[in-house]
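Hi U.,

Before I forget, here's the chain from the pilot set. I'm dumping it here mostly so it's searchable later in email.
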Amino acid sequence: SAQRIGTGRSTSAHVDEAPILFCHYGNKRYLRYVLTCARLSNPDKPIILLGDETNRGTAKRAGVRHEPFDAYADGELLATFHEVYRRVREPAGGSMRGGRDWQKFVFQRWFHVERFLRAENVGSFWHFDSDTMLLSALGSHEARFEGVDCTEQCSGRCMNGWVAGPHVVERYLRKINEIFQDPERCAQLAEQIARSEPESGYTEMHAFECWRADEQPRTVRLNAEHDDATFDDCVCHDDGLRTEALPDGRHTKAVHLHPDGRFFGVTAADGRPVWFHSLNLSWVPNAAFDVVLAHRRTSTRADDAAPDPQGTDTLGARLSAGQGQRPLRRLWRRITGG
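Structure:
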């Protein structure tokens, strides 16, 4: 078996041991880009994919350690979860995706994460959604999160990014189980979601908001700007930056590709450049992952020249030019003009 990662400590003397975790079932095409980019940006970090047999080879080819969910399926917390879980409110499109109960999985993955962390004696760690491209070395950011329980993403609605340790995850999991055992609160949450998010179901994000309100953990937004840079929450949300239209008509942040292999956006209010440490590419074409990884591979020593929005391509421009598309698809576009 693989050597255990951690010391169980999360002080600044040990931040280099903070691993990066992704969770994913299935083997979507974009996963290989995400894992390869994470390894490229963090060559010395432990990176782990908690996954299934379908994505084991993808992790191996990216130089990422693979661990099956089923190996971390024990413990009192997970057993309780399986007993008490119910669909508090089902999303309009249903709960099943790729042959699996996605609505249950978004909760359950965190129970597997907690068991993995305990088994490996991990202290602090990073966790990102499996459609997030990591563009910088995470070790350089860890000192500023000392004293924080976790960072937030999803517009402040989920625990993601930096987490101080398994003790934080455990507190969150206990709240998840507590809510499922409280019929009155479940009914209130279902009614609240029906009013404010009629297409949505009850997910781990709603449980996170309950945990934060009830227990007031020390949290900060991961996308808060720091030294003229940000961790992107979702490229489809403008977050105060200029936007552009992709070929499919979807509007996203205008992501500029700097000649030195970095990425930046421009504030809508005053035209100021903001560097990206990550890009969350939810809801954009698979070709976008290819474009981002190809540009990230061109990385050189950071250029001191000020970024020039007028003189750089954007992600949308590269996609419009056909970069990142499979050869047959590019040929079809040429033939049809579409």
